[in-house]
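Reference record:
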Amino acid sequence: MDTARYVAAVLLVAMLPPGVAWWLVVHPFVRFWRRLGPAWTLTIVGTASIAAAAGLFL
């Protein structure tokens, strides 16, 4: 049970801040992201979110 709690805590700490940052980056600049297109938007913001989560995990 301790392992499950540890895994849940690590996932929460590593994924919650990038998720909130994703919202703060995408929503205020929605016109820019729509002009850029969904593929580029997901590539740019997704890569940054994964890098942030990896940095928080390490």
User: Anything to note?
Assistant: The longest helix spans residues 2-26.
